[in-house]
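Internal ticket - ligand job 223, glutathione:
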Amino acid sequence: MSIVVYTYDWLPEFPRGFVRDLRVRWVLEELGRPYEVATVPLSPKSDAHRVMQPFGQVPVIRDGELTLFETGAILLHLAEDTLLLPSNRRAEVTQWLIAALNSVEMVSGAWMSMMLAARISEAFGPPSTPEAVEFARRNMHARLGALERRMRDRDWIAGAFSVADIMMVDVLRIPRAEAQLNDHPALADYVARATARPAFCKAMADHMAHWQAADATREAASA
Ligand SMILES: N[C@@H](CCC(=O)N[C@@H](CS)C(=O)NCC(=O)O)C(=O)O
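stdout (C-alpha cells):
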C-alpha cells in the first residue's frame, strides 16, 4: 500500500522549498517507494488535521494503519531495515539524526525565528531586536563550527550516506540559504553534495510542483 504524505494545501512563496514534507519526500525517493500527497488546510487549521498532528503542523504520514507525525520519527520509521538505517550503524546514525534536530535545528530555528521577528518589526515596528538576533546567530555558529570540523574529513555524517544525512542536510539548508555557511566550507560542500543526489532533486521538483498546482487551484477558485 502506498504511503500518504500530508502537507499544506497552499503556502505563500517564502517558505516554499523549506517545508518539512521535503525531508519525507527525500527519504521516499532514496528508497524508491511510491507515495501520494494529500493536503490539509493552512488556515484555518481543521480538527481532522489536529487529530493527526496535535500541534497543527505538517508533515504527517499515513502508512497503512499507522499515522505518524514528527519528521524525526517519520524518517526513522521509513528508514527501518533499509540501507538508510543499517543495523550495524543504527545507534550512530540515530545519534546524528537526533543531533540534527536537537543540537543544530534547535539553535538554527531559534535564530531563524528572531530573524523573522526582526524583519517583521522592521516592516511594521516596533523597533527590531538586533542584539537578540546576534546572540542567537553566535549560538548557531558555535554549533555549526563543531559540525564543520567533523565534516572536513568525511563525505557523510555517520559512515555511508544514511537517513541522518537527510535530516542534517535539510536542517542546514536554511542557514545556507541565508548565507550562514559562507564561513563553513565543509558544511557548504556537504549540503551541495547531498542536494545533488537525484532523489533530492526529484523530491524538490515534486515539492515545488505541488505549490505551483496550489497557486493554479487558488487562482481558478478566485476567478
Ligand atoms: N518538529 C516538527 C516540526 C514541524 C513544523 O515545524 N512544521 C511546519 C512546516 S515545516 C509547520 O507546519 N508550521 C506551521 C505551524 O507551526 O503552524 C517536525 O519535525 O515534524
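Auto-summary: The radius of gyration is 18 Å. The chain has a mean pLDDT of 95.
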